[in-house]
Predict the structure of 5-oxoprolinase subunit A.
Amino acid sequence: MIDLNSDLGEGFGIWRLGDDAALLDVVTSANVACGFHAGDPSTMRRVCGQAAERGVAVGAQVSYRDLAGFGRRFIDADPAELADEVLYQVGALDACARAAGTRVSYVKPHGALYNATVHHDAQAEAVVNGVKAFGDLPVLGLPGSRLLHHAARAGLRAVREAFADRAYTPEGTLVPRTRPGAVLSSTEAVLDQVLRLARHGELVAVTGETIATEVDSICLHGDTPGAVEHARSVRKALLEAGVRLGRFVVE
């Protein structure tokens, strides 16, 4: 069984990014922006309500405090402050989720924070400390990352994910968005990557090497061109391949 997750609620005020409602008909878990890189209270509550109606798990997508940069700029944050900001974001989203009849079931970092916690020990531990201060929630991240290492050490469930529409380095990390080809734009390329993951447990790096990997969840970005078409095609292809889809969160 595999989980499908997507980054949702990434609008702000009058601005809208992606089609949250359409993607919630496809995914099994929703990474909802908590207001630091995107999202606002009304957006957070609306998306939580839509997720609850569909039985989709709600996850807190925590970020650096970087609304102007959409959370894609590294910040050399003090670990204690970063832990507190993670706790603040999870708590804010959980209030919206509970008002909508559900709750926050897991945590996933966003953007530059996600990438930093692959190798940055202090920030990875800080994110885990912030999560742990809230409760024993699963943490979603890159296989082999320091984030998942610290999550497991803290007694939290470490949930491994891969990306349907991102290119990989030979080391199994994401190709930076500043480089050409970092985002897979065609549905054919996205399907090839997802089916290879599901059938063979492997990815192909941009340099051609095969990377063995096991994942519990596949991320479908909601802010890329053709995101809804990609997501629907991925769900259809996985079901046709005999792969069961379901939330990794057991309640």
Q: What stands out?
A: The first strand starts at residue 3 and ends at 8.
